[in-house]
Amino acid sequence: MNKFIRNIILIAIVIYFIYYAQKHFDSYTLSILDNIGIFAILALSYNLINGIAGQFSLEPNGFVAIGAYFTAILLIPTDTKLDMFALVDPAPIILQMKAHFLPAILIGGVAASFVALLLSFPVFRVRGDYLAIVTLGFGFIIRIFAINNPAYTNGAMGLNDIPEEANFLWIGILCVITFLVMIHVIYSKFGRAMKSVRDDEDAASAMGINTFKMKTYAFMTSAFFEGVGGGLLASMLTTITPDQFSFLLTFQLLIIIVLGGLGSMSGALIATILVMGGMEWLRFLDDDIKIFGMDLGAHPGMRMVVFAILLIVMMLFARRGLLGDRELTEFFKKKSK
Amino acid sequence: MDMQIFLQQLVNGASLGSMYALIAIGYTMVYGVLRLINFAHGDIMMVGAYFTFFAKAAGLPFEVAVLIGIIGAAIVGILTDKIAYKPLRDAPKISLLITAIGISFFLENLFTVLFGSTPKAFSAPEYLTKIFHIHGIYLPISVIIIPTVTLLILAVVLWILYKTKYGMAIRALAFDIQTVKLMGIDADRIIMIVFAIGSALAAIGGIFYAISYPSIDPLMGIIVGLKAFAAAVLGGIGSVGGAVVGGFILGFTEIFVVAMFPELGGYKDAFAFFFLILVLLFKPTGIMGQDLERGRF
Amino acid sequence: MKKFTSIVATMALLGGMAYAKEVKIGVVLPLTGNIAAFGQTSKAGLDIAAAQNNKLSNGDTVKLVVVDDRGDKVEAATAVKRLLDKDKVSVILGEVASSNSMAMAPVAEKAKTPMLTHASTNPRVTKGKKYVTRACFIDPFQGAVMAKYALNQGLKTAVVVTDAKQDYSVGLSKAFKKAYTAGGGKILKTILINSGDKDFNAQVAALKQANPAIVAFTGYYPEAALMLKQARDMGVKTPFIGADGTGFPQLVKIAGKAAEGFMYTDHFNEAAVSSPEAKAYVAAYHKKYKKPADSMGALAADGYGMIIQAMNNCIKAGKASDDKECINKNLRNTKGYKGITGVITIDKDGNAVKSAVINEVKDGKFTYKTTVNP
């Protein structure tokens, strides 16, 4: 009971912080927090399929795109849509789709989850690196589909003037919910079953665990939150185009969860802050660099070079990521023993 | 589609397929020994093309520049292994993957910072860009040379793998790295050779690419690399012959589908993956692949 | 202690005299990533313009704060917020790609900060926005110019090549088709390509079969160069017409002889500039970069020039040089600004009304053919 109250208090403090930040922080800080929040949602959910269920899947860009497009289409007013679809007239169903913010985001999540269900039948026929390349291909195909079906997606022009309803309050709270759901799943019977699939699929199967079902559960849950994250992203940016959902998005998430420690939710959170905050912090490298009064001039791109080097170095020294596959709390437990 | 256009597309497809094949071989060999999807491989191809470009710009004859490009790429490949992969031999595979992505980001952005991202015009000597007209078919000499050289290289690689001591070591490594180490073979040296061969082939692919489509930029390797990887998996990853088959299938499909159904042109980049998914559904190890857990060449 | 305070006071006074106020212009450009070439050429022109003139009429200095967004929307939007909150800029200049400008526009709009995009040609960028202006013409105008020019040459059948991945190309194709068919031309076929493609043999074969009088290429120069080369290699002699996305020196470098006769609409041609300011820009550009001035850089320089003019007008009106409302009003009311890319007037929607030039590649050089007025 003690622990329960402690957790409630912790959550209350975090939510108060989110509320306070939304009210008092400047828009640049909030924008960084927004990015961290959205990427945390994506990283946490991606960690479920990749770190907990151990399915090396490279699909999140596809599910994020699905969530983003559904949310965008549901939020944009009909006359804006008519005006926006410049290439071909929008399909009738696109015009009919309409919802408020929260339902729109949830529908985006459900849509992604449904696609995950359909996808699980073919993709889970293969394992390991084959799964990786098949899911990478799925993300690729979703993007190319979005480019080539302008009646639904407005093609390469993308959608814009999406009502800006996502703010840090929404993003932060949904991030907290995602975290709680993930923690709950991990320590539930499903989570243990998923981990057993990760550690030894054949053994898990022999123990009577329906491995396919477990993988599909993880896949669908993961896809749901990725879709939600996509919806938040669309509403935060107010504009989406197919190009932003390239495999680079997946790589960015993969970097985050591996850096944090595959399978560790608190690790994923910490790594999101490190990577998203760090990329912003490293911006000074793009400016004029002066060493001992010598002006070396500005080298745009230096930021990404240094980011890449830091990434490699961190990986070399923390082979299993920052936290390994443990949660932050488990470290404290050890100390107290 | 009449005969003339068909033949025209056939040679074009063979040429494009060769380039995919050359890059796919490197992917498949590295995967064979390390079980690593080397995402930096496409960028090695870019490095090879850039080295050749700069060597030529420095006034060296084209042939020497090509040699410098190939050797330079091989060195970069070996260094990549030494710096980013070797220290992680015992770490989880996924950590290696992240360093591979890191190397890829590093090379792309380093070349952007150093040389700018505006495409550079790659000029090949006259004798490689000559065009013949035979019965209405336009044959740039490169479409003859590229597939021929590719097949020759395939023969050499297969000879190395099956007829030399090193080849035997490479195949043994792919079979079981632990046992090989116990038998007193210097595994790291063999892996170095694999990276050298793979990177050199990627450089050759990159140079061919630059001869056929004479513009190079720091991001040229990304999409080609991904497609070549898809080709390698399509053919059965871990199999050199499979990589070549996969590369050619991909080259022919991209050319023929667009020629026959121009309205599908927008989907061109998805063919590789679409195909891949279909093949894996029916034969989960690729066309010529063995069981993944016992991959060999 | 007293002495110390007086020293500080004197220094502050001196400082105040020596350094007039500094006004900041925030610049968001894709300096890395897959559209970096456009960001880098923009910055080259911007640097020239800033070196030529960074003082306002009251002695205030103008400082550029350049932020790279990797061509990424999330970063573009964050970059604007950073420029507003951290660097306290008074104006935003950028982006190149319309999709990125559209991610930035709502942020600027919300903060009531003027934003000037020098190269985003999609009509929706400024649509319904009070604080967003552009220094370039929009896609429908350019498409119409291409179509009119082709029809005037007596070329009545066309194949349109569209880059399915670029909103720019898709919008331009649509505008071209509309104007071309309205003028009595016939579209035989639309051929799709993807930016990043290198092999266009299949598309060229389809083009050869259709045998049009002209090919309207609406994509960017890397693809244009390779497609031209492959088309000429395969014996296709049909003339090509392109738009401002193709007007880069690399087109000729990559395509070589195949580029001969290629026509394209553009914002400017350095051979056709007449005003002394434009000539000074071109001369300075040659001196610094030792290559011909391109239109992307010229547009960025014009964007910069328009902002400086707006600030000077504010000073004239007795307002502060960093008064955002005043700068925006003056930007929006720009009339007959004599820029490097021609005379620029901003219409009520915030779009630039200006002439386009048509260039042709001759002997490996972009030669000026004619100017088309709106």
Structure description:
The complex is a heterotrimer of chains A (337), B (297) and C (374). Chain A is built from 16 helices and two strands. With 337 residues, chain A is an all-alpha fold. A two-stranded antiparallel ribbon of chain A has the order 1-2. In chain A, helix 2 packs across helix 14 (265-281). Chain B has a single domain, classed as Orthogonal Bundle (ABC transporter involved in vitamin B12 uptake, BtuC). Chain B is globular and about 60 Å long. The model of chain B is unreliable at 292-297 (pLDDT under 50). Chain C is α/β, with parallel strands linked by helices. Chain C folds into two domains: 2-137 and 275-355, Response regulator (Rossmann fold, 3-Layer(aba) Sandwich), CATH 3.40.50; 140-266, Response regulator (Rossmann fold). Chain C has twelve helices and 15 strands. Chain C has helices at residues 2-18, 36-52, 73-85, 98-110, 139-152, 167-182, 201-210, 221-233, 249-255, 276-289, 295-316, 324-332, and strands at residues 22-29, 61-68, 91-94, 115-117, 132-134, 157-163, 186-193, 214-217, 240-242, 263-266, 337-339, 342-346, 352-353, 356-362, 365-372. In chain C, helix 3 packs parallel to helix 4 (98-110), helix 5 packs across helix 6 and helix 8 (221-233) packs parallel to helix 9 (249-255). Classes of the chains: A mainly alpha (337), B mainly alpha (297), C alpha/beta (374).
